[in-house]
Design a protein that fits this description.
Chains A, B: It holds the Pfam family NAPRTase_C. The structure is a homodimer. The first copy, chain A, is α+β, with helices and mostly antiparallel strands. Chain A contains 19 helices and 29 strands. A 7-stranded antiparallel beta sheet of chain A has the order 21-20-3-7-5-27-28. A 6-stranded parallel beta sheet of chain A has the order 11-10-19-18-17-16.
Chain lengths: ~625, ~625
């Protein structure tokens, strides 16, 4: 068996398989992703197949899930890029073989199993079709199909599941959070412009009660936002420290971004994936400054925008920042704010004058943190800089964000400084989808959410139950029955179609046996049946029909059409969400998207089911 | 700044720090564990510290959690080994520096920050104390303390949290499951002998109703097991495919084992950590055998134990297995079992005759799977082999396991085969702690649990909230206040003691300020106070006092006393659990373990709290 010649990107081609280009397929991002990253039973089964000479029988496997996570109506498919890297480099090392040979469970195995079979095994006989990475996917529709000899087809099962399950789960979670953060709909366009805010020119509404005006302005109604401003908070991933170890964190960063997040705090993800990173400072930074003396000498060069583009003036003198800050403190009568905190903000300001964003809840959010931020902001602004905002990490985020916004707007009028209208209010502290929805209902002034634990751990449902099932062997369809109806398999190799309606939205997905000649066609009526419930059926005249799988890996030629890029996939996710029925995106009790089988497939499934089920006897 | 000379194991020594031995400290298990595996705000803070010349101020940090996971009363500390590897190899690569220099947020930073500071930074000025890996730990008692200059002390925060949070969480989860699986108490001894069962000589109890006898025999009562047999099911980790990617799975395997699991299905974990692995076959294996013809030629060499040790006879003829199986099928009148399944079991038997364990729920557990297993087992046993058991992966595990056990015992009598009494009944399918407790109540005959999803994702609480806090800088204690009382910090550098009572069990943990001269001593009365609630206090006369932290990393000498071994740590966990008050191990509403402060520390904390809190004005 020769190695797969295609450890390279293939040139893109409409036909799919073509000659390979020079660019080699990278190895998996994680050095643990090797053929041994699998369950032992894959190896014991491989031996039993080999021993009984079944290992080369042609087989067909489907990787799919049975239920959408988070009580939702859809799942985003992710992880394909790492699957392709794994397949392209699949090889047991000599060291791996040595280990297996000495494993107690395998020590009795015939040497030829290791020497002739495992040692020479690669994926040159494996053919993989898959949905496009980032696709909205639905229960029972395969994400990936594998056509391969029984032995190798089985040996890759666990690794494929590992590489798809969590990425798909966290991408879906991220997407749901982004949808929730933005209110009802998500209509971001590529390039992600900053969130629209009230312009500096339009003075914010006021009312006699200090906050009522602002609260009202972003109150949600059943139908969506009634805000006079179009506020679309962004989401940033902060979860590394709470993830399942280093790689859990890395995967979380990557696939949250793919699902619509704007950035991650994870520097390594930024480096390895070329994605935006974000971060400013922590409580410890504030605590570490114990007195104002520590920043007495902190100086800053004034900044003057020239010709529309900000450039630093070279000749200007460095200016001490603290005296300006203290003058404002005196003038505003805010002498009681925490000195250490004020020192920390001054220290941060001279280090990051162009991106000054402070965590304000170390001692007291409104009495100390907010005021200290304003003092340093005014001084920075005097020197020509535009402060960026604040972060809240505890307390009532709705109340505090509105209160801060109110004070900012008050300061904008009092001091005639427009930047106060444009400040970011970042909120973190155990944010999840339910908190986002609750904040929308309460009203808030948050422009950016930092989400960690609940994003990366997928707290609401920490695992996606993807499975990898044998559906055909020797061209014979195989079924798996079970005491649990949910675990019954739709047997045989199938082709999947997405049928679109006149409105341009997907109507349903349809599974058709491969041998069936009658395929769905645009403009032609097709009967679509629920796979298990006889009474559920619907006739569809699709306006457009899209086949969901394409060839992505061909053993002989390796990876076809190159690896999907994260940016492209992210945009694809966004496009799909924007063309999805609103009821499918609903948080509570979303609509259900139909996954159907054709008339013939329905009958075929039920006949095989009958044949394979023994009739029980009760006495 | 020179590199830490101690990238080696130090020789064990009572005093702690000694000369290094030759064995180098390995690099972290995961190639992603580098200084860049951190949040961006650690780097921006480092710059602000450097820029304001604070980066070399001596500081002290504590890594701790605020709440036990899973509603429990304890947490197992894990992950220290990888922390030490990370510290020993901490160095930004040239490539890392290049990336940081070009990061938009850092592009304005002075070149000297990269060239002089980051490029030369390592952990040679870092001193780390820690609890022993595997320790039972309690809220607010530091797991790890770091004494280091402010800059580097901060830069390692996120990575340390990532390396401790998940390992500790999953080890705790595993330990709780092991305790639950075994009934009330866990008293395993080292070497882990197989579970005690009814011996072959004692015939099992019978009753007129087919199952009542067995059900009753393992019924649980409030006080624990009343079983006539001492049944202690084992737990095996099956979670790789549902973990947070490859490394999530790898960490899960390692730390579940540490927490008391017996094996993992993860082959790579077996190879890299030298831990037991387990696995047999999946549904797909059964499905792939389509007819009996496929195993018509399957032969096996009879096996005869000689001189107490099993050895294969070399000269004996190979025997066809299928005819023997079919004869039993005919004799027992079980012609209706599924042929493909029977073929698969025959195929598995000739491949693994000494460890024959079958998954029996592919078509119908009791009517087909169980009977096919028995048929092949009888044939195998005729040839001198001892079959191992069955696995159930769906349905009512209590009912099915008891039913299978009943049939096994019936077969044992009917065919006079003792092996039927010793078969393993493995159960999998969404097992969690609550299911284990429920199975104990219902009664079951399961001897081994395969636990995947709920173990590795820690479904019941998917994150442990470890934090890393600055408690002292320039020898001044630092406090962090918060709108959330729970987030208030106990300031200053503290020493932690575990006070044991006369019964040999721990009574409470006591935190004492480092400067305090009055330390707890065996036999002397000490007043222990709740850190926040004035009224809660208790006087303790400890029989034994153990200081909880010891030096584990000294910048100048590297890792002190070597890395903890997984096996030793596992034993240490076991020993502690066996010496813990039973109420602390309870599933529902466990007792609370006290974490106290000394009288002086109490007053010091409350005074600092007052000083740093601004007095709010309400008008």
């Amino acid at each position: 068996m020769s190695g797969p010649s295609g450890l390279t990107f293939a040139m893109e081609d409409a036909a799919g398989i073509t000659a390979s280009a020079a660019k080699p397929v990278p190895t998996p991002s994680n050095n643990l992703v090797t053929p041994l990253l699998t369950d032992l039973y894959q190896i014991t089964m491989a031996y039993a197949y080999w021993k009984t000479n079944q290992h080369l029988r042609p087989a067909h496997f489907e990787l799919f899930f049975r239920k959408n996570p988070f009580g939702g109506s859809y799942t985003l498919f992710a992880g394909l890029d790492e699957v392709l890297k794994f397949l392209a480099h699949f090889r047991f090392s000599e060291d791996d073989i040595r280990f297996l040979r000495n494993t107690p469970q395998l020590s009795h195995c015939e040497p030829a199993f290791f020497d002739d079979y495992l040692s020479n095994l690669d994926c040159s006989d494996v053919v993989v079709h898959a949905m496009r990475e980032g696709s909205m996917a639905f229960p029972r529709v395969p994400l990936i199909t594998v056509t391969a000899p029984l032995g190798i087809g089985n040996l890759i099962e666990t690794t494929l599941l590992t590489l798809v399950n969590y990425p798909s789960l966290v991408a879906t979670n991220a997407c749901r959070m982004v949808v929730a953060a933005r209110g009802q709909f998500w209509e971001e366009t590529a390039g992600s412009s900053p969130p629209l805010r009230t312009s500096k020119s339009s003075s914010p509404p006021r009312s006699s009660h200090p906050h009522s005006g602002f609260r009202k302005s972003i109150q949600m109604t059943e139908g969506g936002m009634t805000d006079i401003r179009l506020r679309k908070p962004k989401c940033v991933e902060f979860g590394l420290r709470r993830a399942q170890g280093p790689d859990g964190g890395f995967s979380a960063s990557k696939y949250s971004y793919l699902g619509g997040f704007h950035a991650t705090s994870n520097v390594l993800a930024g480096k390895m994936l070329d994605m935006p990173i974000a971060g400013t400072h922590a409580h410890s930074f504030v605590q570490s400054y114990t007195s104002l003396e520590l920043v007495e000498g902190a100086k800053l060069k004034p900044f003057r925008p020239a010709a529309g583009i900000g450039v630093e003036t070279k000749d200007e003198e460095m200016v001490l920042l603290l005296p300006i800050v203290l003058k404002y403190r005196h003038d505003l009568g805010w002498e009681e704010t925490n000195d250490g905190e004020l020192a920390a903000f001054v220290g941060y300001a001279v280090s990051f004058p162009n991106s000054f964003l402070c965590l304000i809840d170390t001692y007291d959010t409104l009495q100390s943190g907010l005021r200290n931020f304003i003092l340093v902001s005014l001084a920075l602004n005097d020197l020509g800089y535009t402060p960026r905002g604040i972060r809240l990490d505890s307390g009532d985020l709705s109340y505090l964000s509105l209160e801060c916004e109110y004070v900012f707007h008050e300061m904008a009028e009092r001091c005639q400084r427009g930047f106060f209208y444009d400040l970011d209010i970042v909120a973190s502290n155990d944010i999840n989808e339910s908190v986002l929805n609750s904040l929308n209902k309460q009203g808030h002034a948050i422009t950016m959410f930092g989400i960690g634990t609940n994003l990366v751990t997928c707290q609401a449902q920490p695992a996606l139950g993807c499975v990898y099932k044998l559906v055909e062997v020797d061209e014979q369809p195989r079924i798996k029955l079970s005491n649990d109806l949910e675990k019954v398999l739709i047997p045989g190799r199938k082709v999947a179609y997405r049928l679109f309606g006149e409105a341009g939205w997907p109507l349903l997905d349809l599974l058709v046996c491969r041998n069936e000649t009658n395929r769905p066609t645009a403009g032609e009526r097709v009967l679509c049946r629920h796979p298990f419930i006889e009474q559920k059926r619907v006739a569809v005249v699709p306006s457009r029909v899209v086949q969901l799988h394409s060839l992505v890996f061909d053993g002989k030629n390796g990876v076809v059409s190159g690896l999907p890029s994260v940016e492209e996939t992210r945009q694809f996710v966004n496009d799909q969400i924007n063309h999805t029925r609103a009821d499918l995106l609903r948080y509570m009790n979303p609509g259900e998207y139909k996954v159907s089988v054709s008339e013939n497939t329905f009958h075929f499934l039920h006949q095989l089911w009958q044949n394979e089920t023994p009739v029980r006897e009760l006495r």
